Amino acid sequence: MSWLTNYVKPKLQKVLNSKETPDNLWHKCKNCGQMIFQKEFVANQYVCAHCDHHDRVPPTNRFDALFDNKNYELIELPSVKQDPLKFRDTKKYTDRLKSARNTTGDEDAIKVAVGKIGGQETVVAIQNFFFMGGSMGMAVGEGIIAGARHALKINAPYVMFTASGGARMQEGILSLMQMPRTTVAIQMLRDAGLPYLVVLTDPTSGGVSASYAMLGDVQIAEPGAMIAFSGPRVIEQTIREKLPDGFQRAEYLLEHGMVDMVTHRHQLPEELGKILTLLMGGRHRGLKAAE
Predict the structure, then answer these.
(1) Which one of 1, 59, 75, 190 counts the least CB within 10 Å of its CB?
(2) Rounded CA gap, 54 and 224, in Å?
(3) Same structural domain, 41 and 169
(4) Are residues 39 and 182 in the same domain?
(5) Does pTM top 0.70 for this prediction?
């Protein structure tokens, strides 16, 4: 019995365990439920090959797909005070930040980079929904402003990819203050005649949709993206009426004039390149010629 327990059983467990399927080998589509190889899903830019559902994308993967030849440089963002309100709910805010940083590898819910899209040098800011739901706090506000300042410095357009549940409650009024601060930064771009484009991804809501997310010179949305201020359940409970099918989705907003276009993720780099080239109108070439 000891021979079976001490020798045979461990050998069998080793063989069986070696054939177990890794947890991250498959992805289950949130829309159609189909199982997809994770590598194929990532290679397809997090778009389901069966139903075309656009899932959420980490910033690094989006940068790689967006910039020409995956060539870009990250912009260093200002640091902000951690936990200014000493906030605590079921967990300390500092613990939530630490957990989010360990999970995503990012300092906060935004990354900003500069590179070329369709040959046009562009500053791009991307919100990371995987970091505390992409919530807008002081760090996100400072990141957006830093991106706008860099765009002004190099005379380049600014593209914002939104993905957020709204303001970060752990920072209270300091989070809400980012709404007017980012609005002023966008106005500075307008005063300089530089384009500001917004790509609305799933989801874009709350204080984000009430500020910089809806201020673009051109508003682009990904297919099926939820774009709202408050969720449909809250609205239905308030007005006591059933909402139309597809309410607050990108296609519904396009039909009602809230966005300019709905563009497939695979076509975004090409479409952005065309729009940016058109809006800049050879501006850089003109400046160099004048010099």
Answers:
(1) 1
(2) 7
(3) no
(4) no
(5) yes
